Amino acid sequence: MNTSIWRKKPIDKLLAEKEASKLRRSLGSVDLVALGIGAIIGTGIFVLTGVAAAQYAGPALILSFVVSGIAAALAALTYAELAAMIPVAGSAYTYAYASLGEFAAWIVGWNIILEYLVAAAAVAIGWSAYFGELLHSIGILLPAALTRSPLAGGMINLPAVLIALLIAGLVTAGTRESTTVNKVVVVVKLSVVLLFIILGVRYVNPANWHPFFPYGYAGIMHGAAIIFFAYIGFDAVATAAEETRRPQRDLPVGIIGSLAICTVLYIAVTVVLTGLVPYTQLNVASPVATALLKAGITWAGGLVAVGALAGITSVLLVVIYAQTRVFYAMSRDGLLPPVLSRVHPRLKTPYVNTLLVGLTVALLAGFIPIDIIAQLANIGTLTAFIVVAIGVLVLRKTNPEAPRPFRVPLSPYLPLLSIAFSGYLILSLPHLTWIRFAVWMALGTVTYFLYSYWRSDLAPQGQRLKWRFFAPPAAKPRRIK
């Protein structure tokens, strides 16, 4: 125990907490790959591809996905090493606690909170858009006031609010139940993506790829930074560590396998999408269905809308699941209120924090536009990736003998390259994103020094008692009769 903000949590202590965890261990490698695909393929393909092509990269968005895919692959390798080495809930937050210390872990955890909450909200907004498209295809038109946020000219995005609350209820019901639903939905989602590629490639007009670089090299990198949001799903696999039966083997398989499958599909979909219609017409919340309709494949548009709804639902499920496990880990360490790590005795899920996450996501999705939300998610993700790569390098020096079932090849070069890629993408984000991020970081720093530092499990007991406002009340002395 010490008073430093850089105090570290020993790996053996983390592993001991994992063994004592009340969470149910029910996941295997297939579950984890499906979990990763469930989180990765969704909003990135069905929503953000159109916005990124129209506003940032044009047809060169194909290269933006390649750049983002390389950055994600490098980050996935570093995640795989630490996930197999420290198979504990919390993902990057936990790895930072073991390698860089408490304040770094707090900053990463705080960023992950931003990442997952706003990612889930963006996914819920995308779900609402496709739901509206589906209803419109059968002659039902929802009022604009109930499908748009106040900043987009409406009152509330009601479908987004309702789906967020519904998914939070499913995640609360149990991990096995959630992953079973996810696997079914992933099969539907992959079928629809493959159908879009097979149907759309016949209608591709190469003229739509000209000009290929309407926004230049900067547009490619800007687009890569924006659509990097699409790759955050493999991080969710790492949050399932404590509920995995054989984490040392299955976590690397889940992380790397899901990312490899999804990267190939992302690039293929982008090639077809930008070839179907001019990129300037893709600035909509449902670009895949819109592209098929504009190409004259009207019967497939409704089918894609159904598949997109299913796919985006799985993303929302996995992202909300991942956020609750990060809250669980941070609460167990004392950095967040203890109620967030309370596990339901029968369901074996952290039910209080799951319901809180669902409510927060519903409020964000109901009242904030998707473009603001997506930009906020990326910077938190990239910051976490940098810290994980640094953690690999640090633990190779400080814990060289610790068992590593998976090792990043060509270390330290690949971790350093991962840091460079993620850092460059951060610098490519808009200035307004940086301002919002700075406000969030300032709020997190204040929260840490006013609450988390004093309530941490690593804080000396005497030091914790100095701040009685945040400390539990002292027991009253018993009266001796």
From TrEMBL:
The chain crosses the membrane at residues 32-54, 60-82, 103-131, 151-172, 184-204, 216-241, 253-277, 297-322, 351-370, 376-396, 408-427, 433-454. GO terms for cellular component: membrane. The keyword Membrane applies. It comes from the Bacteria. It is found in: Membrane. InterPro entries: AA/rel_permease1. It is a multi-pass membrane protein. One of its GO terms (molecular function) is amino acid transmembrane transporter activity. Keywords: Membrane, Transmembrane, Transmembrane helix, Transport. Gene3D superfamilies: Amino acid/polyamine transporter I. This is Amino acid/polyamine/organocation transporter (APC superfamily).
